[in-house]
Structure formats: C-alpha cells, structure tokens
Amino acid sequence: MLILTTATPDDESFLLELYSSVRSEEIDAFGWNEAQKQAFLGMQFQMQQRSYRMQYPDAEHRIVRLDGRPIGRIMTARLPQANVLVDISLLPAYRNRGLGTQLLRELQTQSAAEGKPLQLHVLRGNRAKGLYERLGFSQTEAGEMYEAMEWQQANK
Questions:
Q1: N-acetyltransferase domain: from which residue to which, for each copy (predicted)?
Q2: What is the domain count for the chain?
C-alpha cells in the first residue's frame, strides 16, 4: 500500500538518490567518470531544492512509501487559483506499475473537490507527458525547455 509521509532532513540522501536515478540516462550521455557524475548531480539536486523552496515556499513535500520503503516523492503547492504538481518522481523499479497514475488521480480528486485546476510543467521529451495526457491534462503553454499542462474537472 502506498503511504505518503512528510519529507524530513533525514530523507535528503534518499532524495539525492532519487534525483540521480531520474537524471542518470541524460548524464550517462556526457561520458563522465563516476566522480564527475556524482559531483554534477549533487550540485544540480541542491539547485533544484533551492528553486522549489523559493518558488513554492509552502509546498507539501512528501515521500512516497511502499511497504515502508521510500520509493519516490511528490511535491504539491496549493495556490489560491490552482493546485500545482511541483514534482513527482519514482525510483526506476517502481515506474510503469500504475503507482504514478494512482498518485496523480488522488491529486485530481483533491483538486476537483476544491474546484481548482491541477497544473504542472514537464520537460520537453519527458515520457511522463504521455501519462499526463492519458489522465486528461492538456498543454497550456510551450516553452523552450518545458511545457505547461493543466487538468480541470469536466463540467457536468
């Protein structure tokens, strides 16, 4: 069973491992040795964390746990006009098993209950875009690196 717990400083090493797993394919293409990869990923992870804290200071940062083990993270921000999916990541062994879909559907249910759209940004070329589209998200903006997407409950 999936359980969400509030992220704490004790989760930092897991979050770095998770971040590294998300970026590994991209970083492997650079041809760097392991020390170079780890140094780069550590810096990028810290920059991402700072950016999230600055952009969404009140975001809910949760660790996704399955059978007590951390397997991912989900960050959301509740803004007056919308709920925002800041980040969702799962370790590779837990991807493509319906867990991301389950988490996103729960966010959609919350957003619908609050009468708000659910918004997110996805990196161009990220395979997750297909999942978002299957769950009813549509593109609202296209930038050079990211695409903005939004889900809104259909009017009945």
A1: 2-156
A2: 1
